[in-house]
Specification:
alpha/beta, Urease, subunit C, domain 1, TIM Barrel, 423 residues, six-stranded mixed beta sheet
Length: 423
């Protein structure tokens, strides 16, 4: 990674501030890891020794943030393999996935449940690997036979945890698990409050954990200054989560007006993962039980997302990337942005969800999510006009400059992992 330097980005369309207002004729001055000034180029001038980036004809925007990934490091679409593969192999693959995601312009992510997230965070922070800075959930909380459990493996093989969750029951054990995952390095708490498509013996229509257990998790997490992300594919899990005061609903396939009103009133985000169901249904090797569960939810999921947008719910962006090739890190994350646009959000609304809104959701709004003086210099210069649509982001060659904390990230295709073909 190149040393931090003084950089002046001039020309082009600058998506400025938290609102990402498009302006022209302004420049961005970066000194070290932070943005020093943003304003008319004539006022900022050209500091001696600064590297000047000419962005004329291009778009300048904050680094992208994905609020829902899993650093599983798996190459299988079967959840059973996520649990039984060697942990060191999974972690090594997760390092590869981290660079892929950075290459596509994602400078920050939230890992909502994996045994590798804390390690990836620390390795990126210390400069040992190239990847997005990570807000890890470490292992989330799943009830026995919940979505974070692995139903087709013997319980005694799991020893109380899977590749993404502590398996706990009862309010006291839930509190202890929250404390343990924070002790192990979690910056956010993940709880599964409904079943899901990728788990065999549950239903997404059922509430997982009792109201008391969910409230215990939220109360303990908030007391220890951690936000709570709730996997709630079905409405019952969402209702219980909203009542308990979680910070985000993940998936939200089946929200109704009452749920959306509660989310708006309490400032709870929706991270809809619009790209997920298509990949579950149409990827070879995904278990048949998952495809059967996912197929009926397509229309409901889109309706739920549009309802939340119409009712003013805060919208974050996350795609649920968990395993190549099912959810290829990079292209799949950008696909989420395309689908949000196709669902009716303007290009700028999509980009706000993936930058300033996600920064607020992650609790990082003081440092990230906007091009403003004082914030960390996570900045992209992208070929083309992103105010007209997010399509240019689908081709990583359109990213002409990628800064993470003021440092220029090398973007050489030769550094991208190239899996070998079998045979």
């Amino acid at each position: 990674m190149a040393a931090a330097e003084t950089i002046l980005i001039r020309g082009g369309t600058l998506l400025k501030g938290v609102a990402l207002n498009p302006v022209r004729g302004e420049a961005v001055l970066i000194e070290g890891e932070r943005i020093k000034a943003v304003g008319p180029e004539r006022k900022i001038g050209r500091p001696k020794g600064a590297r000047v980036i000419d962005a004329v004809g291009h778009t300048v925007l904050p680094g992208l943030i994905d609020a829902h990934v899993h650093w599983f490091g798996s190459r299988s679409p079967d959840p059973m393999m996520w649990a039984i593969e060697p942990k060191m192999l999974n972690c090594a693959r997760a390092v590869s996935d981290a660079y892929k995601l950075l290459y596509y312009g994602f400078t920050t992510v939230r890992d909502v449940g994996s045994r590798n997230g804390v390690a990836i965070k620390r390795a990126v922070d210390e400069g040992s690997i190239l990847g997005p800075r990570t807000v890890p959930a470490h292992l989330g909380l799943s009830m026995t036979c919940g979505h974070g459990d692995v139903h087709n493996l013997p319980s005694d093989w799991l020893c109380g945890c899977s590749s993404m969750a502590f398996i706990v029951d009862g309010a006291d054990n839930v509190r202890k698990a929250v404390r343990q995952t924070i002790r192990d390095g979690a910056d956010v708490i993940k709880i599964w409050t409904s079943g899901g498509t990728m788990s065999e013996r549950d239903s997404l229509e059922d509430q997982h954990f009792s109201d008391e257990e969910i409230q215990a998790a939220v109360g303990e997490a908030h007391a220890l200054r951690r936000k709570v992300a709730s996997h709630a594919e079905g409405i019952r899990g969402a209702r219980a989560s909203i009542k308990a005061g979680v910070d985000s609903i993940e998936h939200g396939f089946d929200l109704d007006e009452a749920a959306c009103a509660g989310m708006k009133r309490k400032g709870i985000f929706l991270v809809a993962t619009l790209a997920l169901l298509d990949r579950v249904v149409n990827t070879p090797g995904v278990p048949e039980y998952a495809k059967r569960k996912a197929t009926p939810m397509f229309a409901t999921h889109l309706r739920s997302f549009k309802l939340a947008v119409e009712m003013g719910v805060k919208i974050g962006s996350g795609c649920d990337a968990f395993s190549d090739p099912v959810t290829a890190f990079g292209p799949y994350n950008i696909r989420e942005l395309e689908l949000m646009q196709q669902a009716g959000l303007s290009p700028l609304a999509v980009l706000r969800a993936a930058t300033s809104a996600n920064a607020e959701l992650l609790g990082l709004e003081r440092d990230l999510g906007a091009i403003e003086a004082g914030k960390l210099a996570d900045v992209l210069v992208v070929k083309g006009d992103l105010t007209a649509g997010v399509a240019p982001l689908t081709d990583p060659d359109n990213i002409l400059l990628l800064l993470q904390g003021g440092r220029t990230i090398p973007r050489l295709k030769e550094l991208l992992p190239q899996p070998r073909q079998a045979g």
